[in-house]
Amino acid sequence: MSRCRRRILWIFGGLFLAAALVVPYRTTRVCLDRDTATNIVWRRTFRRGGYMFLLRFLPLVGERRTDGSDPDVRYALLRAQNVTSVRYEIDTLRLAFELAAISLLGAYNFRVLCRTPRRRPGEGEEILKEGRDE
Length: 134
Description:
By secondary structure, this protein is of the alpha+beta class. It has one domain. The protein contains five helices and three strands, in the order αββααβαα. α1 (about 5-20) packs antiparallel against α4 (about 90-115). It has helices spanning about 5-20, 55, 70-80, 90-115, 125-134; strands at about 20-35, 40-55, 85-90. β1 and β2 form a beta hairpin. A three-stranded antiparallel sheet has the order 2-1-3. The chain starts with a helix and ends with a helix. Helix content is about 45%, strand content about 25%.
């Protein structure tokens, strides 16, 4: 394997690994709070996204969403306390697009840029000299 192809594999392999380890995520934050005067429970939902290291993301996936019928949540709402829960999800479409883009660019560089053989200085001068002597 040529030096150019090895270099391309190292560069784009590193980019692929970095993209696989730093994953895009979406959060859904649910806040339940009770108005003491009217006894109405308000549910507010906030969505956000970003990037997070994979080993930090994995423990956060198992948290479950707050449900108004859960006894602990109902008891907290009776005491007029706010209840908040956050749910993390991986943004698979964005991750797949990033990994596919890195793979396609790497394949393009591997096939096209490293395809042309480089001539060393002075390599073909013998043919030119022989053509002049005739």
